[in-house]
Amino acid sequence: MTGLTPYLHFDGTARAALTFYQSVFGGEVGLNTFGEFGRDDGPADAIAHGMLRGAVELFAADVGAGESALRLDGVMFSLLGTAAPAELERWFAALAAGGGTIVDPLQPRPWGAHDGQVTDRFGVPWLIGYEV
């Protein structure tokens, strides 16, 4: 793997988040629990390390005792031009579904591109778009 890969820390929802992201982006999910890693600072079935490998790659874990969970402000995950336009449109709709929020609809822009912003059900903001 090369490049930047976000590592998200969730408050008990890492398994659900990675499963959701796999349903959106495809790929393979790998999960390791606190119990498997011999950690006792959280529930044995909590995720100590998880990853999504595929077109979009993410790492995620549940926080242990005393650790801070995900809080995002002033940042978006940008998927500009990372797939075919139809795939990006599908990703946008899937991220908005089931409790996500469309911040700015995916639409044509005056400069010729299409883009939009959505915050998914886990509070992760995304910028998705493409050139025509």
TrEMBL record:
* InterPro entries with a match to the protein in the record: Glyas_Bleomycin-R_OHBP_Dase, Glyas_Fos-R_dOase_dom, PhnB-like
Write down the Pfam families for this protein, in alphabetical order: Glyoxalase
Source taxon at top rank? Bacteria
For this protein, the record's Gene3D superfamilies field holds: 2,3-Dihydroxybiphenyl 1,2-Dioxygenase, domain 1 (3.10.180.10)
CDD domains recorded? PhnB_like
Q: Which residues form the Glyoxalase/fosfomycin resistance/dioxygenase domain?
A: 10-126
Q: Name it.
A: VOC family protein
* Species this protein is from: Microbacterium kribbense
